[in-house]
Amino acid sequence: MGNPALVDPATVRRTAAEGWIWGFSLLENYRTMYPQAIDEADPRYVGGFGVFRHYPKPFTPANTDVVTPNNDTPYSWAWLDLRAEPWVIEVPAMNRYYVIPVHELDTPYVGFVGSRTTGQEAGRYLVTGPRHHDVPADGFDGVLRADTELVGILGRTYLAGPEDVPELERIQGRYRLLPLSADRGTEPPPAPHEPVWPVWREEIRDTLEFFVLLDFLLGFFPPRPAGSAFPAEQDLRRRLAELGIGVGDFEPATLTAELRESIAQGIADGRAELERAAAGTVGSTGLFGTRAELGEDFLARAVGAHMGLYGLPSAEAWYGGWAADSEGNRPPDASERDYVLRFPPGKLPPARFFWSATMYRLPERLLVDNPLQRYSIGDRTPGLVYDPDGGLTLHVRHKRPADADHNANWLPAPDGPFTVVIRLYGPDQAVLDGSWTLPVLALRGPEEEDQA
Fold first, then answer.
1. DSSP helix/strand/coil, 387
2. Domain finish residue from 151, 184, 217
3. What domain count does the chain have?
4. Where would I find the DUF1214 domain in this sequence (predicted)?
5. DSSP H helical ranges for 132-173
6. pTM here?
């Protein structure tokens, strides 16, 4: 093994647990990338690497690409292979909210092009990989430098409503991706070797095959030089490498039965730690951001990938939610209970751009089918009725309310367990510093009756 300490089953178990948590976000990212960029037979295939696939309409319960899908701003998906050369992102001028975030293979963000960070003007931005050194940045409005050779884009663009779809399609059609050689009219470099992409299977997460796939993915994530700003990651990768993980040829069958059992126990430990952490998480602060912002809190990054893959950092979009109701029921369940969310006057969600609350059924964390085809509610919802004092009461329940005002403010819930996620785009500082807080998810008041 190269290190006698790794023969100790307890040491191997700890390394496997830490490695599972650290590698969880890479595998969750691959879980989405495989059907979108690699498996041409999958209906979610976007066309391979280097192309945009746009969704000009809001998500519905039929969309299952990612958990807790954003239903406010239709998506623009793309994946880039940076091994051969950098890529160029071009965006048009526009007068609506948008963001084109570029995320790395392990899900931290390389950077953001959009309303909050780069403004509303047209722009050209260069995305470089870890092996691209001294690439001239002339002619570009910014450079996004990735630490991994595969990156993804999950762009969001504001949609005002069904009548706005043609204009949104026009805007999305002007998002462009070009390899640097095509942008400059030069001869393209040789194409990189096409790897044998492992087939994604859901059960991979909880078996030793997790580390087989992690070993493959680390081939696109060059180790950092000694003395980097991420010593804990360096140490963990060194310990994983002593087990053969991250060197390109990990094969569990070559390990002793004792070592395989220790790794399996470590996987179970890592899974349990992630589930405990996720159960106690109600906000998004610290879960999403750039590598510098996230630092080496690998558990927080895993919780973010588990609860809302590709969530935006709090400065861009703040996420909160209700994991329990006012009676302590966890999770809330609408099969026998009706709820209200009451925002007092002066305490409505403070957002520079807009806010919404989206309903998800559990355990899938997908949108909820309902007769109104209403999957979220917020300050852009037509006909929203505010309280006489200027506050706002939302009605969260499975059955349609009888009262017309309640119906206007109805967020349909499933006939069972659910969670609600609230998103504030361009949150106020009061949100970021915690001085603004969410109201409780309260049981329905006695004055409301079920529809006859």
1. coil
2. 184
3. 3
4. 319-429
5. 165-172
6. 0.84
